[in-house]
Amino acid sequence: MSASGKTGTIRIHGAELSRRGVLAAGGALMVGFSIAPAYGAKTASTTLNPAISGSWLEIHADNKVLIRTGKCDFGQSSIYTAYRQIVAEELDLPFESVTTVVTGDTDRTPDGGGTFDLLGSGTPNLRKVAAYTREALLTLASHRLGAAKDKLTVLDGVVSGGGKQISYGELVRDHDFKLSIPVKGDLTSIFGLTVEGNPPMKPVSDYKVIGKSFKNSVIVSKVIAKEVWVTNVKLPDMLHARTIHPRTLGSTLVAAGQPDKSKFPTAQVVVKGNLVAVVSPSEWEAVQAARQVAASTQWTDWKGLPGNDHVFDHLRQQADWKAVAVDRSKPSSGDVPSAMAGAARRHSASYEVPYLKHAPIGPTMALADVRPDGSVTVHSHTQNPQALRGEIALMLGIAVGKVVIRTYSGAGHYGRSNGGNAGAEDEAVLLSRELGKPVRVQWMRAEDLQWSTQSSAAYSDINIGLDTGGKIVAYEAHHYMPAMQDDRLIGAVLAGLPTLPAPSDKGDGLYTTANSVSDDWVYDAVLNLDERAHGTWQIGQRESPLGVGLRNHSMRTPGQFQQNFPREVAISEAAALAGADPLQFRIDHTKADRLKHVLERLREESGWETRPSPNPGASSGDALRGQGVSVMLRSGSYWACACRIAVKPSTGQITVEKITMAVDPGIVVNPLQLKRQVEGGTMMGLSEALYEEAAFDERGVTAQDWRSYPILKMGDIPDVKVVLIHRPEVGNYGQGSEGANALAAPAISAAFFDATGKPIRRLPLKPAYVLNVLKA
Amino acid sequence: MVTITVNGKQRDVASPPSTPLLYVLRNELDVTSPQFGCGLAQCGACSVLLDGKEVRACVTPVSLAAGKEVTTVEGLPARWAKQKNLSAAAVEKTLHPVQEAWIEQQTPLCGFCQNGMMIKATELLEKTPNPTDDEIKAAFTTSGPSAHLCRCGSYIAIMDAVRQASALMAKKGGTI
User: What confidence tens digit (pLDDT) does each residue in A376-422 have?
Assistant: First the structure.
């Protein structure tokens, strides 16, 4: 193709570069996908036009670059920092050249997929997109400069060859280029589209932009109060709604109350099946009227849950773990029964993790506008706008193309909406459709704790056999957890409308009740290993007349948190049985150099005392002191944590005095941002370890506010040290705040054992429970 | 009708006097930095300064703000400029040192709680220009109606930012 010649197409590593004409002014190279994306069986339509607005990447005549991603920011910063760095790096541009990042609007961004593991799973789409774009630009430059492509060099967006130079901007000026790249996947699935092919990518050893600390552009607008949060979006004639959810997780509506018109003249009640809502042009009137209507609305009673005091008895004795296949981990091998029978010493124990809430600081909120022509726009804060789009279309029985999801900044909720919805979105759509006006649904604090999904309770039985030398000869784990990914729209369920399937034994993919081994095995020096994961229905799901029960949804480090806590506490207890230092014991049981290195750095940086546990002489003052360690491998990132705690035997109070977190993610893309992410995840981990449990009774979740669902406060924070280990040769971009949250709980439990000699095997480590353990 | 002063401007409020200040600010006056978090004065996402004291807008009837000065994050630059006698032209280019430090330290993660955090930091530093770590922790944990909660766990970054804001304020003209 000649850049100045007639329109043609050229193939570049499986992508197609074409010129659609000459522009009078400006000019750009736009990068989109080459095939119409599949929407599964749902629909064949798309509003994404790679030539116009859905492009992944645009190179403009002024040398500025725009990128688009269908993912959203939930506080990870990666979209505004790491993604910019990755694109700038592949294109040999300065970071500042990537001036615009468009995120998470279904009519303005490509690829879809959930906002999770933004850097951890393989190669981010945008990296490959940038690599294809670089090849296209070099092809154009080769023609313009009259030099062979492989003789060209690029510095800061200026291509040199044959003694001449040309910038990217000049290459595209006055032209209208389009680069179509191959993709696969289902746009409205949880994973979205994936860029295919293998364009040549820059060697890690040549990185200049990746590895440096850049600031997160969205922070400025948040700090100076210019950010448009989802909570700030207003539309003309908008109504405020407060929903009134059933009295229990199995109640059906008997009769809806009515607002006192003398007090609330503009309030109105809407009933859709078992979904009741109060709307008003005034938000405060809606709040007050909803309280009054809720008090006079009648529901059937239902008492189908075991209550949290009996949850583990229920899971052990009542739950059906036989209906679905047991998952056995890939590394499982050897002859565990024989090795266990021949072991000199054995450790056998059970470990329990409670229900946890995502507990965003702002309860779920969405604004929907359903128009007479059937088009639907939802203004929302969701981790997966394309999946939400598919779910809304399914609920209404309309084409996906009729639905637009716009996303805005909002309160982080750590996985709750990675399958599309956080709670309010579909309710807003149903109310807007009913009333013919835009409707803003804002859940109140109690609803957000009682009607949202939660992270499932789980328990594990662990057996470890040691030889006479204190080495592990056999490790056996059975992990039990109800289904963890219920993506049903709750408003649709209550209104009796179509939704994605509830998790079941017949369900496939994400919507199965089967469990899987999620905690990557790291102790590969152990020769006999048997790890199994057992799954079942969500508690109450089949018994509830609504089909609801305790709905679960993935939350930071899902499944792995529930399996890593038992494993790591058990490993520390086994080290004690072996008379070994628990940190060295871990090093001695792995062949992974990266893990050994992380643990060695942790030992140096944390002030670790090398000695066996427990350490009964460790009391000082009125407190017992101890140290504990934990490790995890997640998405190619190695984590290790050491903490020092004080236990007050008189009150059962545990105080974490110091915590050190070491992580080797492979490539540290942005040290400043990663440090903040690790600190944040560590704080959430302390919160989960010390405070969090979603209490429930026979009817439903009883946690209703920040007193009944306490989280970590600033006064609780220990001395925190983050150690980032940059291993560029690994090639992996690794993880941030997700992952970090899982480490604290097993390290604190191990430290408690070190301090007191008493094992502690159930979270959270609240004073009343601690006192019981100390008395035992 | 209630009249309140918001970020230096007098505003007449049409909402009923019992309406919480939060809904008046957000829905009637278009001052949107205070966020709805709990409606129970338990989290601090809605915090504003009322005559310099941090209060929870979600439980404060607007009538209680009558005749008083309400400061939100939108008004922090002007508040600082007034305290430092900066010119009107300078106000346009000024951020409150708390905001500068919040950006410099890359404090927000999701950022939803940070409105209240910056308001609390401003209240603290106006009274205690050079707080100890224990004083910072106490301000955000026990000094108000409830602790200021951050679910993303930005507490370390907040402490770093408060320390930096304190240093910036000292550099820019001593105590205020």
Answer: 999 999 999 999 999 999 999 999 999 999 999 999 999 999 999 99
Domain positions in chain B are: 2-72, 74-171
CB-based contact A714 B73, cutoff 8 Å = no
Distance CA A378, CA A440 (A): 10
Give the dihedral sign, CA A530/A531/A537/A539: positive
Residues with Cβ within 8 Å of A17's Cβ and at least 6 positions away in sequence, in order, are: A1, A9, A10, A11, A136, A139, A140, A177, A178, A179
Q: For the residues A545-550, what does the mean pLDDT come to?
A: 96
Mark yes or no for CB contact B103/A683 under 8 Å. no
The predicted model scores a pTM of 0.95
Chain segment A88-129, per-residue pLDDT in tens: 999 999 999 999 998 999 988 888 888 887 886 656 889 999
Mean pLDDT of B82-105: 91
**Residue A631, helix vs strand vs coil:** strand
Q: Please write the tens of the pLDDT for every residue from A59-79.
A: 999 999 999 998 899 988 999
Q: Which two tokens stand for residue A724?
A: 């980032």
Q: What is the separation of C-alpha A88 from the centre of its chain, rounded to a whole number of angstroms?
A: 25
CA distance A488 to A532: 28
pLDDT single digits (tens) A203-221: 999 999 999 999 999 999 9
| Residue A523 amino acid letter | Y
Question: Could you write out the DSSP letters of every residue in A84-117?
Answer: HHHHHHHHT--GGGEEEEEES-TTT------SSS
Q: Measure in Å the smallest separation between the Cα of A714 and chain B Cα atoms.
A: 6
Instruction: State the complex-level ipTM.
Output: 0.97
Strand-strand pairing, A268-272 and A454-455: unpaired
Contact B112 A410 (CB under 8 A): yes
Q: Are B154 and B114 in contact (CB under 8 A)?
A: yes
Looking at residue A149, what DSSP letter applies? G
Is 50 exceeded by the pLDDT of residue A6?
Answer: no
Q: How many CB atoms within 10 Å of residue A337?
A: 12
- Among partner residues B103, B148, B156, which is closest to A717 by beta-carbon distance? B156
- Residues A456 and A453: their CA atoms lie apart, in Å, by 9
- Cα–Cα distance for residue pair B61/A9, rounded to 1 Å: 66
Higher pLDDT, A55 or A583: A583
* Domain B74-171: assigned CATH number: 1.10.150.120
Rounded (10°) CA dihedral A39, A45, A47, A52: 100
Which candidate in A228, A229, A714, A737 is best for mutational testing of the B interface (most B CBs within 10 A)?
A714
The answer to whether the B2-72 and B74-171 domains have the same CATH topology is no
Q: What's the pLDDT band for A24 if we cut at 50, 70, 90? A: low
Residue A55 predicted with pLDDT over 70: yes
Minimum CA–CA partner of B61 in chain A = A284
For chain A, domains (ranges, CATH) are 9-223 (3.30.365.10), 230-302+364-442 (3.30.365.10), 581-775 (3.30.365.10)
Spatial distance between the Cα atoms of A572 and A628, rounded to a whole number of angstroms: 8
Q: Which residues partner with A184 through β-bridges?
A: A194
Residue B172 · residue B68 · CB < 8 Å: no
| Architecture of the domain spanning B2-72 | Roll (3.10)
